[in-house]
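---------- Forwarded message ----------

FYI, see the Mitochondrial Rho GTPase record below. Original note from H. follows.
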Amino acid sequence: MSDSHTCPLVSTAKVGKTSLIMSLVSEEFPDDVPLRAEEITIPADVTPERVPTHIVDYSGNATDHTANVICIVYSVNNKKVPLILVGNKSDLVEHSSMETILPIMNQYSDIETCVECSAKNLKNISELFYYAQKAVLHPTGPLYCPEEKE
Ligand code: GTP
Ligand code: MG
């Protein structure tokens, strides 16, 4: 069996990181959401891929309410972390953002998957964490240096 995985959730403030984790754990949207969820481990036997996964909540702090950009920093000589774009709060809009997002995803091979979800409606929550596991275990080619594969 593989080692465990760690899946950090990062974003600007108030997009619903803590709510997503709590909805996953309790299968219920939390009315009162703390700033930060406890670190949890999904045990191997309840995950489709049979790998224990630590989910870590990074709370946005008060200052990042004004953020206009998020910098995800990686080291160019060792880029092996797939990115998953998570569009939360899908319950608040009528139309899917997928049309806008998919071309971006196709352009950047580092983006492994995009998923629209709602912590409130419990839509795509377990799928989201499943995609995260899958991205680690079965990454698509381009992340791992296509030049070397040829
Ligand atoms: P920080 O820890 O401050 O960075 O915020 P966060 O990303 O953890 O967001 P949090 O879970 O605290 O949610 C922020 C607000 O959005 C709360 O009022 C939630 O109730 C609300 N919220 C979270 N998820 C959803 C969702 O799927 N739909 C709707 N309508 N509201 C949501
Ligand atoms: Mg939070």
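H. also flagged this: Residues 142-146 have pLDDT under 50 and may be disordered.
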